[in-house]
Amino acid sequence: MSAPTPTIRNPVLPGFNPDPSLLRVGDDYYIATSTFEWFPGVQIHHSRDLVNWRLLCRPLSRPSQLNMLGDPDSCGIWAPCLSHADGKFWLIYTDVKRYGRTSVGGASGASLRDFHNYLVTADRIDGDWSDPVYMNSSGFDPSLFHDDDGRKWFVNQLWDHRPASNRFAGIVLQEYSVKERKLIGTRVNIFPGTPLGLTEAPHLYKRNGWYYLITAEGGTGWGHAVTLCRSRTLTGPYELHPENPFLTARHRPDAPLQRAGHADLVETQDGQTWIAYLCGRPLRNRGRCTLGRETAIQPLVWGADGWPRTTDGQGIPQLNPPAPDLPSHPFPPSPARRDFDSTLLPGEFQWLRSPWPEELFSLTARPGHLRLYGRETIGSLFKQALVARRQQAHCYSAATVIEFEPEHFQQLAGLVCYYGAAKFHYLYISHDEIIGKHLRVMSAIPDGVVGDSFTAPIAIPTGRRIELRVEVDEERLHFGYRLEGAGAWSWIPQIFDASILSDEATMPGLPNFTGAFVGMACQDMAGTARPADFDWFEYRERAYATDPTTP
Question: Quick one: which of 259, 402, 490, 503 could link to 512 by a disulfide (CB 3.0–4.6 Å)?
Answer without folding.
Answer: 503
